[in-house]
Design goal:
This protein is mainly alpha-helical. The protein has a domain of about 200 residues. About 80% of the residues lie in helices and about 0% in strands.
Length: about 475
């Protein structure tokens, strides 16, 4: 088996990314990337490679830890199928409008940003909560779902890495401790302050939420959303004389939405505490998320039947349609995970890391580690995988050269977040598209200009930090 292929190891990911963006056929692009990766592993035995790729797809599908991912992905589709088709979401949106919580576009965008920041326990729950709660409000006010996807994607991972009282913190703490750092916790705390990309991304997202700033492809989708909202408003106007009927709000329906969503959020840290034997950071993240979402789904079903007397047949149909609607993104997630496993076996990340072996001035190392981590995360579609590759490189490098360890740790973490944020094969990027109800490639294309701008600012900041070492 070939595991040291140099630059050729990057081909499966890069070709999958280029093909996905060029053709918008994400599933076929990822499937081709998986098969190509295994063909390269078994060259020149192409048949063995294709068979290995097929087996790998099956193993990923039936892996117990991944089954929880498929379970919560389909369950979240079922949950919001029930809330939407069951009618409770309609009353929830009316209540938000009546209470003047999100009467304007600015408040709606800030509402999304604040939700994303508040739910810092788990990135996928943050995305799901912010995206699905905000989506009907955005449609009503004429804000594009593409901007919603950008806002939720730009708050989830950055805030999880900046407030590491979660599995992210535990994972990185373990990586730092394994490199012989005397005080891993203090190092991680200092690295949080120096994680320039996460900070810039959050600040930029807040600026976009406040101003509504759009540039690049986002402008077109914002214009189309405004036109759709105007058309919907005209359609809703009464056609004859007389006053428009006052829309009623069923408090039980509103309570159903609130209780199901709040339960989904609060159950995650509770389950992390239970599964971690009293320690949130040691808890089982996927189990916790799965239990939280399924519980929220049960509450939504019972609440819809109780408050609006929604027929059982309608609820079953809503569950099936919601899960079916989300199935393509679950398939994309499955293929992306399989491709990530294959690229790690190929040694793509290790090859990129070896680039640092060249003689370079020390002041450029923070920026270079940031960019190298970004390329790694973009290619493999995983921030955690990038952390596992880059931290064992960055920490010994800092120690051997007498450089500040927290700065190089921060650069590696920041690069992992940016590359994951920008990559079309990243699970968080896929889930942001899913939660916002937007085409995946449209989300990637509209988010990329903002991410690149934040990355440029971050690179400059790391160059300045390197000069100040």
């Amino acid at each position: 088996m070939n595991t040291e292929l140099g630059w050729i190891s990057l081909l499966p990911s890069l070709l999958a990314i280029v093909f996905a963006i060029a053709t918008r056929k994400v599933i076929w692009a990822l499937l081709g990337g998986v098969l190509l990766a295994h063909v390269l592993l078994f060259m020149p035995n192409v048949g063995d490679g294709l068979w290995s790729g097929t087996v790998s797809l099956g193993e990923t599908l039936i892996d117990p830890s991944n089954q929880l991912i498929w379970g919560f992905t389909l369950a979240i589709g079922a949950l919001f199928g029930v809330l939407e088709r069951g009618g409770t979401f309609t009353h929830f949106v009316r209540a938000l409008e009546r209470k003047q919580i999100v009467p304007t576009k600015r408040r709606a965008r800030l509402f999304t940003w604040l939700l994303g920041v508040a739910v810092f326990i788990e990135s996928n729950v943050s995305i799901m909560t912010s995206g699905t709660t905000s989506r009907p409000v955005y449609d009503k006010l004429g804000i594009s779902r593409q901007k919603l996807a950008y806002l939720v994607d730009s708050t989830c991972a950055p805030v999880c890495i900046l407030i590491p009282l979660n599995a992210w913190g535990a994972f990185n703490l373990g990586l730092i401790g394994n490199q012989g750092v005397a005080d891993p916790l203090t190092t991680l705390i200092y690295a949080v302050v120096l994680n320039f990309y996460a900070i810039v991304a959050l600040v930029m997202a807040f600026g976009v939420a406040w101003t509504g700033w759009s540039f690049g492809p986002m402008r077109r989708y914002e214009r189309e959303a405004r036109l759709r909202a105007v058309a919907a408003e005209e359609e809703a106007k009464p056609k004859g004389p007389g006053r428009a009927p006052v829309e009623t709000i069923h408090r039980g329906a509103v309570a159903t939405v609130l209780v199901s969503l709040i339960t989904m959020v609060l159950l995650v840290p509770i389950m992390l505490y239970i599964t971690g034997d009293g320690s949130i950071v040691r808890g089982k993240g996927m189990v916790s998320v799965f239990v939280a979402i399924v519980t929220a789904l049960i509450i939504a079903i019972i609440g819809s039947a109780w408050s609006l007397r929604t027929p059982a047949k309608t609820l079953v149909e809503a569950i099936l349609r919601g899960a079916w609607k989300i199935l393509p993104l679950a398939v994309i997630l499955w293929l992306a995970i399989t491709l990530g496993d294959a690229t790690r076996t190929l040694g793509s990340g290790a090859y990129l890391a070896d680039i640092l072996n060249e003689a370079l001035p020390t002041w450029i190392l923070p920026a270079l580690i940031f960019l190298l981590a970004a390329l790694t995360a973009f290619a493999i579609g995983s921030s955690w995988g990038t952390f596992a590759i880059m931290l064992p490189l960055a920490i010994p490098l800092a120690m051997s050269l007498g450089l500040p360890v927290p700065l190089l740790v921060a650069a590696a973490l920041a690069g992992g977040i940016f590359g994951d944020h920008a990559s079309p094969i990243s699970d968080t990027t896929i889930i942001a598209s899913l939660a916002s109800g937007v085409d995946h490639i449209e989300h990637v294309q509209t988010q990329l200009p903002y991410a690149l701008l934040a990355a440029f600012i971050t690179t400059v900041l790391y160059v300045i930090a390197g000069l100040m070492m």
